[in-house]
Amino acid sequence: MYPIVRREAFSDSTFLWEVHAPDVARAAKPGHFVMLRLYEGAERIPLTVADYDRERGTVTLVIQALGKTTREMRDDYRQGDCFDDFVGPLGLSQHIGKPGHVVLVGGGLGVAPVFPQLRAFKEAGNRTTAIMGFRTKDLVFWQDRFSRWADEVIICTDDGSFGRPGLVTGALEDLCRTDPPDLVVAIGPLPMMNACVETTRPFAVKTLVSLNTIMVDGTGMCGSCRVTVGGEVKFACVDGPDFDGHLVDFPELHARQRRFKAQEAAANTDFAHVCSLEQQLVVEGKRTYKKLSALEPHQVPMPERDAAQRARDFDEVNLGYGMAEALREAERCIQCHKPTCIAGCPVGIDIPRFIRHMLVRDLEGALDAIYDSSIFPSICGRVCPQESQCEAQCVIAKNKKLEPVAIGRLERFVGDFARPARAEPPKVARRLGRVAIVGSGPAGLAAAADLVRFGAEVVVYEALHVLGGVLQYGIPAFRLPRPIIDREIQRLKDIGVRFETNKVIGKTFTIAQLTGEMGFDAVFVAAGAGAPAFLGIPGEFAGQVYSANEFLTRVNLMGGDRFPYRDTPIGLGKSVVVIGAGNTAMDCLRVAKRLGAPMVRCVYRRTEAEAPARIEEIRHAKEEGIEFHFLHSPVEILIDDAGNVRGMKVERMELGEPDERGRRKPVPTGQVVELDCDTVIYALGTKANPIIGQATPGLGLNKWGNIVVDEATQCTNLPGVFAGGDIVTGGATVILAMGAGRRAAKAVATWLDRGKAMWPVDGADAEAFTAGGAACPKCHRPVEDGEEGYVCCAGQELQWRCRSCAKVSEGFAFPHGRCPHCGGALDALERPGITGDAALAAIRAAFEIELGGRNFYARAAEQAAGPEVTALFAKLAAMEDEHMRTLARRYHVDMPIGGMGLAQAVSLAGIDGPVDDPETLFAAAIAFELRAASFFAKQAEAAQGSPEALLYRELQAEEEEHAQLLATERDRWRTGKAGIL
Fold first, then answer.
1. Per-residue pLDDT tens over the stretch 9-44
2. CA within 20 to 30 Å of 375's CA: 73, 183, 491, 981, which one?
3. How far apart are CA 525 and CA 511, in angstroms?
4. What's the CA gap between 231 and 209, in Å, rounded?
């Protein structure tokens, strides 16, 4: 990694980097260039050395933001940041002799690499003249630096705004006539160097040009930078970059420079699109920025390996999105005002926010947005059932013709391809205490991550020899590659979580030992649910009957698929039956197929529609040759005289009445069928591991052996002992276990922060906990230790303002989540008093508008045709009344009286139509609200920087919300539906 030790901006597009690269600085000479690459996957770009400092070990570059990479360098990298690769010095250095009068011509960014040559020629005893060319005065840089080394400096500007008007070639031609140079060195854009060559040719002045053209590797390997010089093929990266310009075939070079023109034009179009989105979504904070009709109706397909090929190995099946597919899918998110997808995520990822970062090509920002809620984007993006969680809540899917945004695929892409910031132990003001976590599965890892951030010392105990729990032993590598798990766990190690493997809590240590002699202040039990479930039918004792856990553990954890090259065997015959149709069953079916079983069948007592497995998993299994027997229930496993499995009896079922969970209950038909098989795998779910329950006297368990906890805090009945994940719920999803771990982390931190004084932890206290200390559960602001009840705002009404749209709202508790109007973040407010004429004028303007609207709605209610419309406008009049009362109460000003008539209001709105027609009334009402919003927006712009600017923005947001409400009411009235009022 190479650090940027200094950054200086010369203009909006031109900037300087001073890079710490001692080896390059030690060897650099005038005329050299370097190859730079920002990060893995970025392009290599050539940049000419503008200066070097051997003592400090730095190399100076001057860059103009023209393409994608140089724009990234300008926008995303600051002093102190690092980048990946810096190769050089490359090329041949300039031969510094003593020809006499040397003229050095720099055009635009070519001025910077001219400087070290100017200095070297002057130090060698030459008379030097510098010609510096810029488009305008604002782009001029390094005039003083050049003046120290040049006997004469001539600055030219294209527009004549500074120095000599016109191009550098005019100044060069004058010198050739009046003070002939012995040598000219020209560096700059290709057309400029070509023009300089043609200017000096009639005078027979030797002219060197620097052909720092498009290069790929910069070491002479690729030949991209070839150029014809004097009839011979040369390579700028090793034979140059300086050549005798009178011998260079410039027409050929111009033609080669145009070869990527189409691609560059496409890149510029994409850049303009990204800039437009950034303006709308980030700067202006717009939401619902595109219409549903503009969306692709279907999700962008995810590339997959061929079924016949993948069914023979354990390499990953889904290949994941590339950049093009990911950005195309991200464009299907409309950034809706009220993103219901967040409510569908068990850990509350701000999904629109991470996709918003993707839309503007900010993958690191997208990753940070996910990391706020989930430490495992690459894992959860692969194994979570998004179609029944976040994607099921996607707004666009409510339109039956549109599929939801592929949120899981986008999360996986961000986790795989974004470059995470270096993980380091967090800096915390004070230590909370020591916490032991039992189990390194999803719940334990999620809790560990949060607790370390809160300031706890965390040790995770794992019974197995590898970390990850069910992620390692329960999910095959073709769904979740092992390097992904290792990478995510390494981040936890980097931030300070300590792991100990081969420690069985309940055997090696007990819970009592952890909280006693071992000195832990709290324990979070996340031991999972590893005990298998069976049906109790005849034949289950046979040796070829596996539980899913045993079967998958032998393969995933112990390498049974590589026996005898690994020591753990797994016996599998020619015909396998898996009982069950959940995700674990699909894993067993597909693993059996990969182990070489010719016949693999699934038996499930309900229909495919009731199967709990993900639709994608069932599809993949079918594509790989798995047979499905739905509406069949096992009644007996048949064994031969040697005690081996020879078949299975199954009974055909039909669906009856729904059970307690709403699923239609399978009913036996009496028809029995025999299936030939020699291996049976039970995939019917799991039960709680009994070890901890047996070893912990007094721990509350339910009838299934699961630990009983408070759902809000994960507190057990034993003080200081928390539990979560499958040990509490039974077998569930990775993301649900992570949600339990995060809840537990807050509860543990709250308990420790308050001195372990009260058990169980109060749910509201835990929800309000912040890493900086205790927070008021009502307003979420920090409170001092010892404050009575930890409520700092007692019975007062609270106010909060949106950072984005400035809308102010109020209530008796600070809300969770974001602004319902625009999705912006919320800040708690003290009650703002109104003082000063300008602020009072803003409130008076608001009152006048609201009063006019109230009277308009009241008259409309009297004259409108139809009881529904009459009732609606009466409610709208009441809404305006309430808003005026709110303003009066909020800002301690009196309400006015007065208003306008209905005909006058319709006329002022510029709406044609009879005043008693609902369409006319709706149109006039919407027009009024939008005109009011526009008025307040202009007032906010005019008052920018003043206290009342936020007030105007607040009022603008109110009017925009009213306009949206009215538009919704009108649309529902047109279709005969009930309005939301």
1. 888 878 899 999 999 999 988 888 888 888 877 778
2. 73
3. 9
4. 17
What one-letter code names the amino acid at 557? L
Residue 606 tokens read as 């309900």
- DSSP string covering 364-433: HHHHHHHHTT-S-HHHHHHHS-GGGTTGGG-GGGGSTTSPPP-HHHHHHHHHHHS-PPPP-PPP-SS--E
Query: Which residues does residue 829 pair with via DSSP β-bridges, in sequence order?
Result: 799
Instruction: At 496, list the tokens.
Output: 């300070």
**Amino acid making up residue 781:** R
Cα distances (Å, whole numbers) of residue 384 to 411, 443, 459, 736, 835: 11, 14, 26, 9, 54
Amino acid identity, residue 386?
Q
Three-state DSSP at 802 gives strand
- Sorted by sequence, the CB contacts under 8 Å of residue 495 that are 6+ apart come out as 423, 424, 425, 426, 449, 452, 453
Kindly state the tokens that stand for 731: 């077998």
* DSSP conformation class of 47: E
How many Å apart are CA 125 and CA 101, to the nearest integer?
A: 10
- Burial class from Cβ neighbours inside 10 Å (0-12, 13-18, 19+) for residue 644 reads middle
What kind and span of H or E run contains 148?
A: helix 143-149
Burial class (CB in 10 A: 0-12, 13-18, 19+), 146: buried
Q: Is the dihedral of CA 902, 908, 912, 918 positive or negative?
A: negative
- Closest by alpha carbon to 583, among 550, 621, 547? 621
Q: What is the largest CA-CA distance in the chain?
A: 113
pLDDT of 213 higher than 70: no
Pairing of strands 33-37, 45-48: antiparallel
Could you identify the residue written with the tokens 């005898």? Answer: 564
Q: Which residues are 61's β-sheet partners?
A: 17
**873 with 857: CB under 8 angstroms?**
yes
pLDDT in tens, 465-514: 889 888 888 889 888 888 888 888 998 999 899 999 988 998 899 999 99
Helices (H), 820-946: 837-863, 867-891, 902-908, 918-942
pLDDT at residue 55, as a whole number: 92
Q: What is the pLDDT of residue 291?
A: 81
Handedness of CA 465, 466, 468, 471 (dihedral sign): negative
Buried b (16+ CB within 10 A) or exposed e, 296-324: eeebbebebeeeeebbeebebbbebbeee
Task: Please check the confidence at residue 811 and state whether its pLDDT lies above 80.
Answer: no
Cis peptide preceding 564, ω within 30 of 0: yes
Closest CA to 154 of 124, 169, 117: 169
Q: Where are the beta strands (DSSP E) in 167-241?
A: 183-187, 207-210, 226-229, 232-235
Measured between its terminal Cα atoms, the distance across the chain in Å is 59
Partnered with residue 199 across adjacent β-strands are none
Q: Which helix (H) or strand (E) holds 647?
A: strand 645-658
User: What is the C-alpha to C-alpha distance for residues 419 and 292, in angstroms, rounded to an integer?
Assistant: 32
| DSSP notation for 436-481 | EEE--SHHHHHHHHHHHHHTEEEEEE-SSSSSSTHHHHTS-TTTS-
